[in-house]
Amino acid sequence: MRNDLKDSFQKAEQINREQEEKLRNEINKEQNLINQMCQEIMWGSSKNSIIFDARKDFGISSVDADLFYEQALKHIEEDTKWTQR
Question: Which of 17, 45, 65, 74 could form a disulfide with 51 if both were Cys (CB 3.0 to 4.6 A apart)?
């Protein structure tokens, strides 16, 4: 019985670590995506080109790409860097 409980706790801890890693990766993905969009906007790339690249490079939907593009524009206009929310 005691080993079963210990095994359950170890499995729960492993799941928690895996979920934290997935979340960190997702945050990094968003940060990288927005930073890439900011760079492409500053280089003068077209919105369609930037969205195409983001969808291809990051595997996101066109709706998400539009939202990230708007965030990137906002960061440029406000001269701010991407930060975790």
Answer: 65
Q: Rounded distance, CA 34 to CA 53, Å?
A: 12
pLDDT higher than 50, residue 85:
no
Burial of 51 (0-12, 13-18, 19+ CB in 10 A): buried
Other C-beta atoms lying within 10 Å of the C-beta of residue 6: 10
Where do we find the tokens 């960190």?
24
Q: Provide long-range contacts, Cβ within 8 A and 24+ apart, for 44-51.
A: none
Question: Sign of dihedral through CA atoms 52, 32, 27, 72?
Answer: negative
CA 65 – CA 36 distance, rounded (Å): 12
Proportion of the chain above pLDDT 90, given as a percent: 64
pTM of the prediction?
A: 0.70
